[in-house]
Write a sequence for this structure.
């Protein structure tokens, strides 16, 4: 299994530009999570999906952030317009409800720098 | 409110010595408990979990964790530390299956040769 795949691994963009981060969860997993990690705030949950449906988006910072999961094998996190304070590492994770308890498996992350 | 505390930002231990990374939680009910490790420029990796049963659970790379219900703690341990264990360690709880995890702030472990 290839694990959770994220792209791009690094993204450098200018303030005001649109940024789209992509995630492919592990095949068969039906829960998907987007996190943001910074030195100041640590690991923050932004949003998570069960069976492609957003369950809790209370962690999304503001309306500039949006996430979609059009099918079980793909999700996007979009920031429009981007700001320097959005600079962070963004992780996608997936888990399975087939097991009684679903540990999360993390992707390698996307390091976003907004200048 | 649900929360996870890792009281030590940094733990230093000499190679070959036992290590402990502490975790306490405040969550209603009987949560599931996890430990994750993060190496530089990598995503978090699952180490071990506690669901029910024996209070001592064993995981990857020789790590184990002890669940203490009365103290609401889930400390990570290893009998003999390796330099390669140096990383950032996160404790997490899952209050009810299907809901999201609550992660602690992380503890940076440094194993000195």
């Amino acid at each position: 299994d290839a694990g959770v795949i994220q792209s791009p691994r690094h993204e450098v963009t200018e303030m005001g530009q649109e940024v789209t981060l992509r995630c492919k969860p592990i095949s068969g997993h039906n829960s998907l999570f987007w996190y943001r990690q910074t030195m100041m705030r640590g690991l923050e949950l932004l949003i998570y999906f069960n069976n492609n449906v957003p369950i809790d988006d209370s962690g999304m910072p503001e309306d500039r952030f949006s996430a979609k999961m059009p099918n079980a094998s793909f999700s996007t996190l979009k920031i429009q317009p981007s700001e320097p304070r959005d600079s962070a590492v963004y992780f996608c994770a997936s888990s399975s409800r087939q097991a009684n308890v679903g540990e999360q498996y993390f992707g390698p992350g996307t390091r976003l720098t907004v200048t | 409110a649900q929360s996870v505390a890792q009281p030590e930002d940094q733990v230093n231990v000499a190679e070959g010595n036992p290590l402990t990374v502490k975790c306490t939680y405040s969550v209603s009910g009987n949560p599931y408990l996890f430990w994750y490790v993060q190496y530089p420029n990598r995503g978090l990796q699952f180490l071990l979990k506690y669901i029910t049963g024996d209070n001592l659970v064993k995981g990857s790379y020789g790590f184990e964790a002890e669940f203490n219900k009365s103290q609401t703690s889930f400390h990570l341990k290893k009998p003999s530390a390796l330099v390669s264990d140096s990383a950032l360690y996160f404790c997490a709880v899952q209050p009810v299956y299907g809901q999201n995890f609550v992660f602690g702030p992380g503890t940076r472990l440094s194993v000195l040769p």
Remarks:
- Chain A touches chain B through 23 residues (CB under 8 Å).
- The longest strand of chain A covers residues 42-50.
- Chain A has a mean pLDDT of 92.
- DSSP finds no helices and eleven strands in chain A.
